[in-house]
Amino acid sequence: MARSSLVGSIALVALAGAAFAQPCSPRWVEAPGTPDQGVHALGVFEEAGSPALYIGGWFESVNGVAALRVARFHGGAWSALGEGIPGPFNSQGYMMCCANVHAFAQDAGRVVVGGNYILGGGIELNSIGAWDGTLWHSMAGGVAMPPACQDCAPVVHSFARFGGELHAAGTFDLAGGSVVNRVARWTGSSWLPLGSGIGVTATDPFPAWVYSMTPWAGSLYAVGRFSRAGEVETSCVARWDGASWHDVGGGLRTPEGGRHPTLAACAVYDSGHGPELYVAGILDIAGETMARNIARWDGSSWRDVGGGVGSGVNDRVWALAVFDDGRGPALFAAGEFEDAGGAPASNIARWDGQAWSALGAGVDGAVQALVPFDDGSGPRLLVGGWFTRAGGAPSAFLAAWAGCPATCYANCDASTAPPVLNVADFVCFLNHFAAEDSRANCDASTAPPVLNVADFVCFLNAFAAGCP
């Protein structure tokens, strides 16, 4: 039979069954809960064989469950972490206000909580503490600023694992009583410095802080607002090799009359050319490269990322995460902006290595945290911040972008209700074939015609084999 006749016949069948084949599309869905105020931190850790979600921020309850500043979602239910972290007037911040949570990690079977606070569960922790599922524990007395610094707020902004040990970074000079300068490693019982730490040069009038860290290519990368790492001058990004600090391609630069750069997030993403380090925040120039609020480092040079994110003077990126929403792994950037790559995108956007795209209508306020999460209901990218709507629907402070679950090839329509394999999968396959969609190339052939009867045989074999 001629291909045109075959396609025509298939098209008739496909149209007849189109109502039964609804392919999965990424979309905004209901979040697992609604905090009563903003979310600044998200973390997911395996517990009892399934993932547990932790959220932190300024809230005092989630779905009506009292939870001061930090809460846990596991097995479909929310719970507090003991007495939590008291909020008002206890944080050593400006005018002694207000306690906050910025980061989570897991170490030695316990969840480590970093932020700006004094007490956790009634125990003095000083901005970093460990929760074992029942009780809070001090980590060598936590972090601090020098006594001479009045009303200074010691803050833990980020965690990363490097060399098998937990590392913490933020705005602090002391950890466990030792001088560490903004970044420290945890041995399991004490805090140790990374060289002479991170700070500023003698001519830099601004304070130093580290917002985020990530390991990559055998080194630990730190980003934030600083001009010195160890004895090396570097702007806002530095590399620790386990023994000493290094500059990264000249760091960031301030254009004449432009914005002072500050990095808030970093992540490693492979767009098909090998893993690269992405950094984001407020920036205009990385090394010698113009890059708007996000740039990538390939190990030897800085590169632009699709025209960047945000065109307004106050636009910025607060969070990065790699997530596969069914269209392949992509880098998601979120913060405070109205465009990405020159196209509209409300505070969150997706980079696939080629171009930026919006997530529907996005969210209507600032985003400060992202984390992938799948508790069995399908992959989701959870979004935390200060907003009230996501995708045009109510979703206060916590939102969920749902991806398409991984399925076996025969489950063409990605259905989940039993029987998973049924006539709708045949109709779905026929639709793909009729549209000359590459998804119908079951046998992955490359010789023309790529789509042929062999693909039908391949699909029938896959259907007969069933799904695991």
Describe the structure.
Helix content is 8%, strand content 42%. A hairpin with a 2-residue loop joins strand 8 (100-107) and strand 9 (110-116). The radius of gyration is 25 Å and the shape is globular. The protein contains 3 helices and 45 strands. By secondary structure, it is mainly β. The relative contact order is 0.11. The chain folds into 2 domains: 3-22 and 411-465, no CATH class; 27-402, Methylamine Dehydrogenase, Chain H. A 4-stranded antiparallel beta sheet has the order 1-45-42-41, with no helix packed on it. The protein starts with a helix and ends with a helix.
List the helices and strands and how they pair.
Blueprint: H1 3-16, E1 27-29, E2 39-47, E3 50-57, E4 61-62, E5 65-66, E6 70-74, E7 77-80, E8 100-107, E9 110-116, E10 119-120, E11 123-124, E12 128-131, E13 136-138, E14 143-144, E15 155-162, E16 165-171, E17 174-175, E18 178-179, E19 183-186, E20 191-193, E21 198-199, E22 209-216, E23 219-225, E24 228-229, E25 232-233, E26 237-240, E27 245-247, E28 252-253, E29 262-270, E30 275-282, E31 285-286, E32 289-290, E33 294-297, E34 302-304, E35 316-324, E36 329-336, E37 339-340, E38 343-344, E39 348-351, E40 356-358, E41 366-373, E42 380-386, E43 389-390, E44 393-394, E45 398-402, H2 423-434, H3 453-465
Antiparallel strand pairs: 1-45, 2-3, 3-6, 4-5, 6-7, 8-9, 9-12, 10-11, 12-13, 14-17, 15-16, 16-19, 17-18, 19-20, 21-24, 22-23, 23-26, 24-25, 26-27, 28-31, 29-30, 30-33, 31-32, 33-34, 35-36, 36-39, 37-38, 39-40, 41-42, 42-45, 43-44
